[in-house]
Design brief:
With about 170 residues, the chain is mainly alpha-helical. The protein is about 50% helix and about 5% strand. The chain contains eight helices and three strands. The protein has helices spanning about 20-35, 40-60, 65-80, 90-95, 95-100, 105-110, 120-125, 165; strands at about 130, 135, 150-155. The protein has a three-stranded antiparallel β-sheet. A hairpin with a 2-residue loop joins strand 1 and strand 2. The chain is globular and about 80 Å long. The chain starts with 19 loop residues before the first helix and ends with a helix.
Length: about 170
């Protein structure tokens, strides 16, 4: 079998982590989306950065290979729900971190009104009450694909109310 693959970091932190304007932006985003720490924000930044890098590399290719790779990248981002069907390569360069954070399972649960706050949505997910197509997802940072949106369900079972006699009242 061999040793397990050495895990690598999924994120790259900011170049200047102590700039005041960056700290304020990060703090407001953390509160808005209910992120646990800045690493989750940096992971979203890294995801966005990789898609932008792929788009800029495709722009530098010749016309024949460019069209094929452009279509596949746009198709992937459309299936993730980050772009519309009629998007072009320049739209990828116009994506923001908010677009990626809006596709997280935690944010989707909040949008579907299954939770009142982002922190409650996070709790429902980590406690195993959220399922996508019958499969339990326990990661709040899971990026929900467009075809998975209608399959999101909450299987939270509340206890039945007891009559007053049984409660001891």
């Amino acid at each position: 079998m061999g040793d397990p693959k050495k895990s690598r970091r999924k994120w790259q932190g900011p170049r200047h982590p102590w700039k005041q304007d960056n700290l304020k932006k990060e703090l407001s985003i953390l509160g808005k989306y209910g992120l646990r720490n800045k690493r989750e924000l940096w992971i979203a930044n890294s995801i966005l950065k990789s898609y932008r890098k792929q788009a800029s590399e495709i722009l530098g290719l010749d016309e024949a290979s460019r069209m094929e790779k452009e279509k596949s990248l746009i198709k992937k981002l459309v299936s993730l729900g980050l772009l519309q069907e009629d998007a072009v390569l320049d739209n990828i360069l116009g994506l923001s971190v908010d677009d990626v954070l809006e596709r997280r399972l935690q944010t989707m649960i909040l949008k579907m009104k299954l939770a009142n706050t982002p922190y409650q949505a996070r709790q429902l997910i980590t406690h195993g009450h959220i399922m996508i197509g019958g499969r339990r997802i326990s990661s709040p940072g899971y990026i929900v694909r467009k075809d998975e949106e209608p399959k999101i369900t909450c299987n939270l079972q509340l206890p039945a109310p007891q009559p007053a006699e049984e409660r001891g009242a």
